[in-house]
Amino acid sequence: MQVDVGATPASGESFYAALSEIGQLLMCSLEPPLLYEAVIEVLERRIGARLVMVGELDHDSGQWRRIAPARVAPGMADIYPEQIPFSVAKPAFWRGEPQLEADVRHVAGLEMLRPAYARHGVHAVVAVPVLKFGEVCAALVIRAAQAGFFSARMVELLQQAAANIGLGLEAHAQRVRLLQSVQDEARQRRTLRLLSEMVKLVTHSADESTLLADACRVARSIGGYRAAWVGLFEEGAPAVLQLRAQEGLADDAADSLVMPAGAALAGDAVARALSTGEVQVGLPTETPGVRSLLALPLRVGGAVAGCFVIGADRADAFGAVETRVFAEMAVELGLGIQMQRAQASRLAAERDLRFSLQYFRTILSQQHAGIVVISEDRRVSFINEAFCALFGLPEMPAELEGQPAETFYARLQQAYEDPGYESRRIEQILARNEPVKGDEVAMKDGRTFLRDFIPIRIDGVPQGRLWHQRDITGQKMHEARVERLAFYDVVTGLPNRRLLFELLEQARARAAEQGTLLAVGVLDLDRFKSVNDTVGHGGGDCVLAEASARILGMLREADVLARFGGDEFALVIAGLDSREQLDVISRCILQALRAPFGLMGEQLYLSASVGWTLFPLDESDAEGLVRHADLAMYAAKEEGKDRGSLYEPVMELEQLRLQAMRERIAQALQRSHLQLLFQPIVYIDGLPGLHGVAGMEALLRLGDTDELIEPAKFMHVLDDPQLARPIGRYVLDEALRCCQSWMRSGISIPVSINISTRHLLHPAFFIDIDAVLENYPGVMDVGFGIEVTETGPSMDHARAKVVIEECRRRGIRVGLDDFGTGSASLSHIQKLDIEHIKLDQSFVRDILDDERNMAIAAGVITTARMLAKTVIAEGVETAEQGDLLASLGCHQLQGFSISRPMPAEAVPGWVAGWVPPASWGSLVNERQSLLAGSG
Question: Which string of DSSP letters, residue by residue, matches 683-748?
Answer without folding.
Answer: ESS--SSBTTEEEEEEEEEE-SSSS-B-GGGSHHHHT-TTTHHHHHHHHHHHHHHHHHHHHHTT--
